Please model this.
Amino acid sequence: MTVVEDRRSRRTRGALRDALVSLVLERGYAAVTVEDIVAAADVGRATFYTHFKDKEALYDHVVSSVLLELKERLAEVLAPEDAGFTGEPVAEVFRHATQQPDPYRMILRGEGDGRGLRAFEDAWSASAYEIFSARVKANAVRPRVDLQVLARAWVGEQMAVLLWWLDAPEPRPATDQVVETLVELSRHGRFWATGFDSDGH
Amino acid sequence: MTVVEDRRSRRTRGALRDALVSLVLERGYAAVTVEDIVAAADVGRATFYTHFKDKEALYDHVVSSVLLELKERLAEVLAPEDAGFTGEPVAEVFRHATQQPDPYRMILRGEGDGRGLRAFEDAWSASAYEIFSARVKANAVRPRVDLQVLARAWVGEQMAVLLWWLDAPEPRPATDQVVETLVELSRHGRFWATGFDSDGH
DNA sequence: AAGATAATAGACAGAGTGTCCAGAAACAGT
DNA sequence: ACTGTTTCTGGACACTCTGTCTATTATCTT
Model:
């Protein structure tokens, strides 16, 4: 059992990873062939198949790498007894996304027939649900709406804004500011109390 | 210029449409071949190519049909001077989705590398933005947050809940109830005011 | 330096694509 | 019911990409 991967493997896998992501962002997942990938990565075609079963396997590898890394980072942030809803987890996701925007873009755009998107959404929704119900218990409040729906809605919102933000032309608005907006929305709804809410219906 | 399409064309196109959607939901877009589609639709392979350039063209056709139909229905609903935010447009989308859940599922899952999803999201965000800014003007309020972000967030939320709802096992919760929840969230944020909001700092 | 592991080119069969054709079938209008 | 038009069809074609294999070379690790 190798503790550290052979340098050649490491380099090859990295090159394939990067090639996939940038090609997908350029042409769309379906339009990218294994031949394209190995050409861009400057790797023999046979080599590709010693590392990955097919294009899908490479894609899945990229997605789960990102997801795993995010999970580890979130674990650190959530460790110190989350006393209040400071939006810290959201901010951490945004920070992580800034550090590798391209894989995030690929995933959030739904490339790969939305498989990455769904994986991301499911993982995120699950932890959102946990955070919510822990909070409900701790504060002894009765939630207004089903927590499952709440989690889905919340995550859907985050992901939409995250993608919008990643695709925005540089310089992007500051992370903290966007996150602040999201938290604000989450607390008080979308509008001012001034007349905006009190419509006829 | 034919006023009404030839019956044969109509039938063939319909069969191809349905075949694509159900196969995609079953196996995923990438795994579906033109040969699969024509087999399921019980149509000669050569016939396929007299109607559509390729699988992608058929997919785009399905997406734009749905989008066009939705647009027309929304136009009717929005016609009578929208005086207040009654959530009526949202309800209309949900109703439309109930009538043809499968194409909606296909699109919202991100099949087709998210192209349908993005088309849907863009269209919806654009009209959401218009509604919002019209309302800002009419009520002479200053919005708390950037309307662009607001629109994205709102739409992301709707889409996530819509997909969750469509994938929920029957009998699904009533449309009106889910929509009511969404509007409620949009007005007052995610939690009760009882202590939930008032966390540290 | 030596043994282990990885990368490579080239060859292979097979699946699916998109185009073309010529004949058969179904259609719309009179 | 007839007729000219349109659509449907199977079969054939060249082509691209796939995934597997093999023998050889290059590069790593210790």
